[in-house]
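user: can you give me the structure for this one chain? tokens are fine.
assistant: on it. calling the predictor now.
[tool input]
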Amino acid sequence: MVAAILASAALTGAPPPRVATTAELDWLRSFGRITQPVFAAYGAALNLTERYGGPQPPLPPARRRAALRRDLAAAARCARLRYPAPPTRRLDVGLRLQHRLCRKLVAASTTQSPSEARRRLWASVATSNRVDDWLIGGVTRPLPHRGNVAASHIDPRYSRAASLVAHKRVTIRCWTGNDYGPIFDAMGAEYALFRRVYAFAPLGGLSANVGRPQCLLLDSVTYRHRYGASDGERFAVATALLTLAHEPNHLRGISDEAVAQCYALQLVPQVAAALEIPAPWGRRYADMLWRNWRRVARGAYYTSQCRNGGPLDLRPSSARWP
């Protein structure tokens, strides 16, 4: 009885602050390989039902309902998956939370009402975010609030810019030093990614995580006013600003990567202005990104709906793009 109470308390508490060990990373890679089809179906179901843009291209209502049933059924299969024994208590708690998430997805997949299925699906997101917190390791620990420093930190200026995009108060965590590799490798292992991402954020959460390379670029343009001496340097800065504009869209509640990327493109000048980068440079960075859009927005990050006057145009009455 005592063990059950302690286990239940762990599911609602805060994860330990340390980053993943080598043994934990190995287990996470197994977890990611086993779970990847479920993650894909879960993401597809969220994309079908989200408020900000929905699937790209849009689906007729009947096809949307059929697709939602299919994706929910595929996501609910996570309840039947089996994993190797976790090597640490932290991963054991994360796996328990994963089982809780799966039960919620089963409930969403078995309801006959599309609106109730959507409600239950989105109610599961908070549990999914808790799974990430426990499995990735160290990602929720307290950090100092200061900018332009070498250690991992919460940058106040980047947080203010991100809050404008998210339409609520959020923070940007810059991970550097000995934190960057383990945290981003753990995230990649959990989701079976083939390369490190620039950044990641919990859907509907309050804090986004940005990796060392992008934070260093943001530091260069924000604190040292180095806007880029060559096209290559300017493009690197532009992608860092795009990252800072992209992740808060997920914090706002946008699950679709292509929608978030398209909105981020259009918000680069606004984010640049919030960092006190001169307006001509903000526009120049956005224009450079658009000229290289098929290079910037690849795979799940691309949609043909992202264009001047298209369904994702944030300013359809204006001829200016992006």
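assistant: here you go. The beta strands are 153-154, 171-174, 199-200, 207-210. Residues 1-7 have pLDDT under 50 and may be disordered.
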